[in-house]
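hiii, so i know i said id send this last week but things got crazy w the move. better late than never?? heres the sequnce for the chain we talked about at the cafe, plus the structure i predicted for it. fair warning i was half asleep when i ran it
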Amino acid sequence: RAEGLVKAIEYGPLNNAVISLPQIVRLARSYEDRAVQIIRKAVLDREETLVGYGLAAIHDWHRLSADGTLGAIPHKLRQAVISKVASTREPRLFDALSIAAELVGDSELNENDMRELTDALERLRLETAYESWNVSDVRTTTLTLVRARCVRLAYKLKQKGAIHESIEWWINETKDDPIPEVRYALSQAED
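okay and structure toks below
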């Protein structure tokens, strides 16, 4: 049964079942390599729904790993999240930022990974600046989500000892942000 489900996810109409792959791996470790490839491909896709399923699968893997039910998130999946954030590419950038913050918080990333995330925060500081934002940009609907998740990621990076002016900017300069979800993101990250 698992083989049929994995094939349907891999080749067919069950893209939404990508989210179930960590559970399949939990039950049958022999599917780990294929699951990792499918999830990674989904995260790096351009279709929003598929990217969302891939990121949700990584989040689920992280949760199962924290529970001790499944091993650590494989390197290729951590790299997919880092690549997504480092490219500052939509769709679902806000979800990738959130997962990256979880990975930083749980010390699952190395120094190079954290450097890439810090560099992405610098680019996002410029790319998401309200002063230069084009309100007709299709990403406007997620702008504040991205900014709020940047604050949380900066906080987690700082907690782990990362030092960079972009981290300080996201933590200090957004305290007066006109949008409440961005302004209060730091207090939520501290909880």
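btw The radius of gyration is 17 Å. thought thatd interest u
miss u guys!!
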